[in-house]
Amino acid sequence: MTKIVILTGAGISAESGLGTFRDIDGLWSRYDLDEVATPEGFARNPALVHEFYNARRRNAAEAIPNAAHAALARLEAARPGEVLIITQNIDDLHERAGSRNVLHMHGQLTRACCAACGHGWSAPAELHADTPCPACAAQATRPDIVWFGEFPYHMEEIWAAIRAAELFVAIGTSGSVYPAAAFVQDARRAGAHTLELNLEPSQTVSDFTEARHGRASAIVPAWVAELLGA
Where does Zn(2+) bind (predicted)? Predict the structure, then answer.
């Protein structure tokens, strides 16, 4: 039974070299998000969208899980069946660190899907506007990513887990993106202890019963060691 629900955001992967939306010199700053992270942008210029996500896919493939990812994998291994990671991230660093019980609410760079028939499959290193769907052959392949204006994945399972959790922890999240920003309020209403682990106070820090701030690679392993008594 899931007792610990952990929400992770861009901050946990930043130390692995993957930028956040707010990075001034990062990949995001070189593109207009309306053009590369919306269904409308994809309809207008699929080649540009694929160029952006091919670059992100290369970036993620070169990244290495950091101590925070490893600590969460250690926690899951020590508490089998009790830990669920909900991530806003589209990289696979949690899985590469050893975590297995992971829900990607915003999709995954390692997956592709067809805008015509909905079929999904493992993405190659590069996708292009003329990449055919292996199921229906339509040239409507897109990254399997939840864009702005689209509904996140796994929401029924996520809400159920949050409302049943004894401990809810948010790591590396800004508290500015919904519905994830509302998870802590739901967890508290259900009686969970809530903890924020973040580089700096998030926009929802006042909703948590406890908060610790610093680099994820330092504070997450320290918290896991404390929780496990080792």
Answer: 114, 117, 133, 136
User: Which class is domain 1-18+65-106+152-230?
Assistant: alpha beta
Q: Where in the chain is the domain with CATH 3.40.50.1220?
A: 1-18+65-106+152-230
Reading the block at residue 87, the tokens are: 């991530």
pLDDT digit string, tens, across residues 61-111: 999 999 999 999 999 999 999 999 999 999 999 999 999 999 999 999 999
For 138, the enclosing helix (H) or strand (E) is none
Class of the domain covering 21-62+111-145: alpha beta
What is the separation, in whole angstroms, between the first and last Cα of the chain? 23
Binding residues for NAD(+): 9-28, 88-91, 172-174, 216
Please indicate whether residue 128 is annotated as part of the active site.
no
